[in-house]
Amino acid sequence: MKLRLSLITTAVLFFAGGQAVEAQRSKKDTIGEQKIDEVVIVAYGSQKKETLVGSNTEVKAKQFADRPISNIAQAIDGASAGVKVSTSTGQPGASPSIQIRGIGSYGISTAPLYVVDGVIFTGALSALNPNDIASFNILKDAASTSLYGSAAANGVVLITTKTGKKGADALSFSMSTGYVGRAIPEYSRVNAAQYYPLIWEAMRNGRLTAVPGSTITDANNYATANLISGVLKTNIFNVADNQLVINGILNPNAQLRYTDLDWQGPLFNTGFRQNYELNYSGGTNKTTYFSSVSYTNETGYLIKSDFERFTARLKVDSQVKNWLKVGTSISAVSSNGNNSVDGADNNSAYINPYAWTRTMGPIYSPYAHDPTTFATMYDAFGNIVYDAGNARGADAAAGRNIIQETLLNKDISKNYYIISRAYAEIKVDPYLTLSTNVGYDIRNNRRSRYINKVIGDAAPGGAAEKTTYTEQTITWNQLLNYKRKFGSHNFEFLLGHENYKYIYEYMYGYKQGQTVDNNDELINFVTPTSLTSQTDNYRKESVFSRLNYDYDSKYLLSGSIRWDASSRFSKDVRWNSFWSVGAGWRIKGEDFLKESNLISDLKLRGSYGEVGNDGTNSYYMYKNTFSLGYNNANEPGILFGFLADPTITWETNKQSDVGLDFGFFNNRINGSVEYYNRTTSDLIFPVPTPVSSGVPNNNISRNVGTMYNRGFEITIGGDVIKNENFTWSLNANASTLKNQITGLSNGITEIINGTKKISVGHSVYDYWLRQWYGVDPADGSPLFLVADAFANTTATDIRTVNGTKVTTNFNKAKYDYSGTAIPDLFGSFGTSFTYKNWSVSAMFTYQLGGKTYDSNYASLMSSYSQGGALSTDILNRWTTPGQITDTPALNSSTYTSSNAASSRWLVKSDFITFRQANLTYSFNPEMISRFGLSGLKLMVSGENLWSKTARKGLEPSQAFNGTTTNRYSPARIVTIGFNLSF
Fold first, then answer.
1. pLDDT tens digits for 459-474?
2. Helix/strand/coil (H, E, C) string of 463-502?
């Protein structure tokens, strides 16, 4: 007993910041005798937090209000346990990808459903001004999401916008400005002086291998004679080509003829961000209103990438009668910008600036030089002349120039949005409320591309393309809500009906042959090569109901059901039901804990339910479709496009969740521990068909698979110190995830896709790769574990090293599972300090475990680069018999094995990122009131400030499946600003 009292006393004193225990009852730490119920947003309504049985994480505006973000999805990173974020690119306005509680599907969408002010939102999140948002709630289990039925399998994010408050009018203006830079450093690469001897060495070793009987002298002479003329094509030093590298050493007399060898500098610079917000709100006893206008302009650190957005919003709510309340809101958004090349979709394309500035050899200049004086050349108008790449090696984009093409090409998007909501509530009696909500959103996107006629894909004629699409969504629901209390028994019943309609209209045109300069319109081009359009319709109808019950806020029960019909499926399987049940025990409400000063909250809860996923890549999954436009001159033609299974239906997600919510010392310490288990059945997979059947892509989509996601989530936060002048708070969350395929049918035993193999007993993100063994110390050969089929053969490319059968031929290598992209642990932690008028907050995200397949690094580790860049790690290559290293010898004859895709390119995915920080100073109201101000705050904010990974240049969070691409890496943003309130 003495030990227990001592521990409790120590904890109380620590979390009270050294104050006496009685300080727990001070004004600062309590709200007096009056109890104020905390209410949170839930599906189709709100609910007291203490009676929730589902997993619902709320993030309020104050947690992201001062951050320089253009997309609200960026605020989700690190906000909740169980939520994994694939970071957005550096393209201004870009949205990250989000997975809630694992991998919801293999072949269809894994993204959560977004709901804005009670209505499903399918538009771009960049259309929402983050400063118009009051809060967002992340719903993670079936008890929270099942009322959204077939759209809820991957979780739901409820976004609630700001509304006016009764009382005096309020006017607020804020602005911020700052710089945009690169957050992820580039891989370390060798310089020009190091590069030539390395390529020479690969040629020398290759000659010895390819020509038996060659002497070292012969091979040296061959490499010296052919280094420039045969492979690299360019000599930037002031010595003869056959004198540049002698016996593997760069000529000590060699001096650079020119030094303008930087390809990244002209394309990557410092961007600029500015944001302005003005909002006006207020209200009377009957009507409240909130209005805002904003302007955001952000230029990326890559030239010709930017994002500009104008928003205007008005929201009005009015209690017209004591039995009638109505409200409406409308937002108008205009955004436009220069689009950067999508590196993920154009990983190795010649127009990818991230690929070719990274992999361009250090011996090539982007500019043309006089062949005699080697001075940089300019045209008659004084413009610099770019090098066309005719004197480059095979790996250096001969005939192209990424800097010139980026400057000459154009890719501009313009988006226009209307986001509107309206509702009416009729209070039939004190217990019964009827309401209806309608939402209409429209988005018009116009994209214009110009591909120049000077160099590149459209030379010498030039080309232009126009893409336009319009998306419209209409949602209308009708709700009946009945609340009744009988003594300590509380009931709430919801009955609803909802219609959802989505219309997509698309048009695309492409023409070649430019007539005059500086005109990108299609009329200025001669030859049409593509002109197409399409219209898609998607509809859903739903009926749903929910019943909540609690006894004295102690014993909690909840049940919900929704029937959905989706137009994606045939009439026979179109309707399905989705449901959940949940229960909770608020232990704090029991007599034995009511008066406890130690435990301020304790609730055990659990739920089970089924939700669905119809997020397929086709709106007509049950119909055979045919592709038009395959004409033969004037004769029309069609092509069989898609073979359908008419019985295909939803993927179903069966979810169970158990959680414990806790709070100590008047919630000075609070948190939760949860375990979830998600089983997805009827996974949609492409089932192979015989080639002779003539089925497009040789497969048909069917419901054939089952998998599960399981994990633990821990969230904890607390005020370490809290007194009148100083508060120090800490928070953290951690999550685990285990994913596994548990069933495949219809003859499928495995599906190999890139670096992954899908099979029973393994995760969809488990790597299936050639098994890299290492480097033979005897001769520097690359070694792989040998496949069983070749293990007993006597071929010269199979040998035994340290008792292990290996091969130097990658075609004979053994394939096996090689770890997973899924981490052992991931989450975030943060802290905040408040001292008088000063406030500081910071958040870090982290990941432990898992592996990344770093193909970007692999492209820099070629054992025979023919003009491509090389990592500085290549300096650790094998050179001497007996040498122990993990980098094979450079060799032009065996480099294909050294470079082959294998487990060699896996690297640890561990990282920690300084995700964001804020520093603010708020002036005392007494000081500024004489100027007519009610508030003045100065702020400094930063995003993506620092990260630590297993390798410089590595970006392990760019894809859930652990792969890398040459993409626009995330931006670091630092801004300063102020906020004025009147």
1. 999 999 999 999 999 9
2. EEEEEEEEEEEEEEEEEEEEEEEECCEEEEEEEEEEEEEE
- Its sign, for the CA torsion 427, 428, 429, 434, is negative
Using alpha carbons, select from 582, 581, 580, 583 the residue that is nearest to residue 611. 580
Sign of the torsion formed by the C-alpha atoms of 587, 589, 590 and 596: positive
Q: Which amino acid would we find at residue 51? A: T
Q: What is the distance between the alpha carbons of residues 449 and 464, in angstroms, rounded to a whole number? A: 6
Q: How high is the pLDDT of residue 35?
A: 55
Q: Distances in Å between the alpha carbon of 944 and those of 214, 650, 845, 913, 949?
A: 55, 38, 10, 7, 14
Angle between helices 216-226 and 192-210 (to 10 degrees): 130
Handedness of CA 44, 48, 51, 56 (dihedral sign): positive
pLDDT 10s digits, 479-507: 999 999 999 999 999 999 999 999 999 99
Token pair for 982:
């009147």
Comparing 2-11, 504-513, 672-681, 820-829, the range with the smallest average pLDDT is 2-11
d(CA 280, CA 900): 61
Max CA separation in the chain (angstroms):
101
DSSP of 895-912: HHHHHSSSGGGEEE--EE
**Cis status of the peptide bond prior to 460, with omega within 30 of 0:** yes
Among residues 950, 949, 967, the alpha carbon closest in space to that of 958 is found at 967
- Backbone region of residue 322 per phi and psi (left: phi > 0; alpha: psi in -120 to 50; beta: other values): alpha
- E strands in 322-409: 324-338
For 109-142, the DSSP string reads: --PPEEEETTEE--S-GGGS-GGGEEEEEEE-SH
Q: What percent of the chain has pLDDT over 70?
A: 96
Kindly give, in sequence order, each residue whose CB lies less than 8 Å from that of residue 158, ignoring residues fewer than 6 positions away. 41, 42, 43, 115, 136, 137, 139
- Residue-wise pLDDT tens digits, 206-256: 999 999 989 999 999 999 999 999 999 999 999 999 999 999 999 999 999
Kindly report the three-state secondary structure assignment for every residue of 563-615: EEEECCCCCCCCEEEEEEEEEEEEHHHCHHHHCCCCEEEEEEEEEEEEEEECC
Helices (H) then strands (E): counts for the chain = 10, 46
Helix (H) or strand (E) holding 167: strand 167-182
- Label residue 505 left, alpha or beta by phi (over 0 means left) and psi (-120 to 50 means alpha): beta
DSSP state letters, 414-427: EEEEEEEEEEEEEE
Closest CA to 174 of 103, 91, 319, 280: 280
The answer to whether the beta carbons of residues 275 and 259 sit under 8 Å apart is no
Q: Which helix (H) or strand (E) holds 200?
A: helix 192-210
Contact call for residues 909 and 951 (beta carbons, < 8 A): no
Summarize pLDDT for 157-171 with one digit per residue, the tens. 999 999 999 988 999
Tell me whether strands 113-116 and 156-161 are parallel, antiparallel or unpaired. Answer: parallel
Q: Are 491 and 51 in contact (CB under 8 A)?
A: no
529: left (phi over 0), alpha (psi -120 to 50) or beta: alpha
How big is the CA angle at 429 (ends 426 and 432), to the nearest 5 degrees?
70
C-alpha closest to that of 681 among 700, 708, 657, 660: 708
Instruction: Provide the residue count of the chain.
Output: 982
Token pair of 799 as six digits? 């040998």
How far is CA 215 from each of CA 87, 220, 291, 530, rounded to the nearest angstrom? Answer: 53, 8, 82, 58
What gap in Å lies between CA 651 and CA 709, rounded to an integer? Answer: 14
pTM above 0.85, yes or no: yes
Q: Is the CB of residue 940 less than 8 Å from the CB of residue 916?
A: no
Distance in angstroms (rounded) separating the CA atoms of residues 227 and 239: 13
361 token code pair? 């050899």
Give the pLDDT score at 18.
36
